[in-house]
Amino acid sequence: MVYEHMGSRGTNILLSRASRIKSKLQSVLEAKILEVEDVSYQHAGHAAVKDNANETHFNVKVVSGKFDGQNLVKRHRMVYDALADELESGLHAISIVAKTPKEAGL
């Protein structure tokens, strides 16, 4: 379990992996649009999913000005780098759509 320290009262709140992913990507990429969808249920029972673990597979759509001038591989690397600790602690797979604001029609 991952706890985040929140608020001035020292309250520890259990955050879902989806919430942590959103927070990390928003912080690093300053996203104009950020959608995080947990699709782990589609992978339950697969060999790589131990004990039918939850929050292992996600679809991520992110629109960020930080992607300007970056090719697709570099954009994906930016997402993976922001989520490195999640990938080391049970996040198994991410499907990424990474666009610039112009590409997204903003």
Structural summary, described in words:
One of its GO terms (biological process) is iron-sulfur cluster assembly. There is one protein chain. The protein has 106 residues and is of the alpha+beta class. It has one domain (16-99): BolA-like (GMP Synthetase, Chain A, domain 3). The protein has 3 helices and 5 strands. The chain has a 3-stranded mixed beta sheet with strand order 3-4-5. Strands 1-2 form a two-stranded antiparallel ribbon. It is globular. The termini are far apart. 19% of the residues are buried.
Q: Tally of extended strands? A: 5
List segments where confidence is low: pLDDT < 50 over at least 5 consecutive residues: 1-12
Arithmetic mean of pLDDT = 81
Radius of gyration (CA) equals: 15 Å
Helix and strand composition category: alpha+beta
For the largest beta-sheet, the strand count, sense and barrel status come to: 3 strands, mixed
Strand content: 25-35%
Number of helices: 3
Categorize the overall geometry.
globular
Termini distance? 37 Å
- So, the CATH homologous superfamily? BolA-like
The figure for the number of domains is: 1
Classify the fold: give the CATH topology.
GMP Synthetase, Chain A, domain 3
CATH structural class? Alpha Beta
Order of helix and strand elements from N to C terminus: EEHEEHHE
Specify the CATH architecture.
Answer: 2-Layer Sandwich
- Helicity, as a percent range: 25-40%
* Order of strands in the sheet with most strands: 3-4-5
